[in-house]
Structures are given as C-alpha cells and as structure tokens.
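[Q] Does anyone have a clean structure-token version of this?
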Amino acid sequence: MRRRVRDVLVVLGLAAVLAGCAASAPDRQGRAAPRETAATALGDLRTVDPCSLADAGAWNEFGRVERAATVSLDYCLLRITRDETVIGVSFGELARNVPTAGNPVRRHGGVRIVEETPLPGHCARHVVLADGTSVEVSADLRAGGSGAGLCGVADTGAQAIADSLSEHTVRHREFPSNSLALVDACDGIAPNVMQDIPGLETAQPRRSPSTHQCRWGQERSDATRVQILHTAGAPPAVLHSAAVEERIANRRTVLSVVGGDPSVPLCSAETAHVPFGPPENGETEVAMIVVAVPGETGSGACEYARGLAERVWPNLPPI
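[A] Here you go.
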C-alpha cells in the first residue's frame, strides 16, 4: 500500500508541551536566543514546503541520498542507501503537544528537540517551537543493516530543521485557488455525520496544524477511527483484489482495504483532484478518507468509507 496510508497508522501523542518553555537558552555570544513560534518561523502552515525544512545534503555522511516520490502535502521523504542498507527518512510533518514526559529534551537555539524512545527499526525526533507546534523527523530501516545508526540519522535531521527554523529559510508552495491545500479537512463534513458511526457518537474533530488532516476517535487499535486527509502523490489506483474503482458523487473513487487483507477492518476511499507539482511527474492532489472499525471486516469498513465519501466529495473544491 502506498505510504500515504502512513498518516493513518502513526499515533501522535496528545500531551502538554509548554511547561519549561518560558526561558530561552543563550546563544554562543551569551544573548538569549529568540523563542520561535509557528507563525514567526513558518508563516502560513497550509503552504509550507516540508522539503525546504532540511537540505538533503545534511545526510550525505550516511550514504547516497535521493528524494522519494511525493506521498503527502505535509512531509518529505528521502531514501538513504549505503551498501545493502536502505533507510527511509520522513521529515516536515507538523503536530501539536508532543509528549515530553520521560523523553530526553535538549535546546537548540530557539527551539527544543524531543527524543522519542527508539523502537526496532525506527527512531524519531520532534523539533518543538515555543507555541507547542512541532516538526517531526523520523528514520526507518527499509532493508539490510541492524538499525543501529537510525537515531544519528534522526538527530542530523532535527538539527538541520532547527537551523532552518531559526534562520527562516522555509519556502512555500504556490497553489491554485481550488487546491485542497487551502481547504480545512475538518470543514468537508457536518459534525453530526460522525455520530452515526458506532464508537464515534461523542467524538470531536481534531485538526492538524496545517489543516490538511482531520481525525475522529482515539488513536488505539481497538477504537473506531476516521481520518480525512488532503494529500498528494500518484493518482489513486486499484492495487490488489480487495480494491475497487467506482464513481461517488461524480468523482472517480478507489475504495481499498488497507493492505489488501479482507479481514482487516481498515478501508480507504481516495479521489484525485487537481495536478500537483511538475506536469512530467504525473502527480495529483488527493482527497482521502480512512476508516477503522474494529470488529468489522474490510468490506464493512469500506461501507462506512463509501458513505462518508458520498458526504465529503460534494464539498470539495471544483476541479
């Protein structure tokens, strides 16, 4: 399944991060470093180019660095290859209220870097601004190797991002007026619609800092969850036997059981929007709905995804 589904599977902690932010660490000249916020360091969060938050050359010491294909409006993907080892680096995704309890925290200029406890084959860092907005960088072992150097890769990215934020070198993408990037994903559906899904009767929407993602439900494997994303990449395609193409609200739509296993109660609905990036790349913006309904089959989850698409697609900007 395409890495777009990564957004559905990543669990973001929701705990306060503002404690301890009142004082700014001094710089090398003894002056207090400015306390950067999302507004001062990044500007319009909807149009941030995540790939501009770190130069790919920062990772050259780890091997051959290549840009991977676009799979999101919110983060950038790199591939690092050395001999038989392949590492995937994801960076640029914004979040709020990353938990710090029990995690090492160090200051770098006007931001803080929070170290997640590493997992086998995975290591992540969060560059936290003074207002609690954070920028994530993670390193994942894709092939070969032991994963022993992943945290060094993540640390390098965190330092590069911290420098970019303090130096205000972020770039912004230009989008047409009918772009999904400029639309709040939470605004595409009436609040009471989710109440019809068992387990979400009282759930409230949670929007990402960029407003490209909206979530309902608790981030637990045994909880019903819905996510609406405005993203980008290859046009939706039927990739396995547990996926179908149909028209919903006069839009070509691909409904797919995530991973292709019909017993997995996780389904996505995707529809292409306007072109994204250079025409030769053949990429598009994509509206995506992902539904997880524990206790259901994949086809049962897809029935919910289909019903939500019938409500969401008519509210998308015209093509």
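[Q] Thanks! Anything notable?
[A] Residues 270 and 288 are 4 Å apart (CA to CA).
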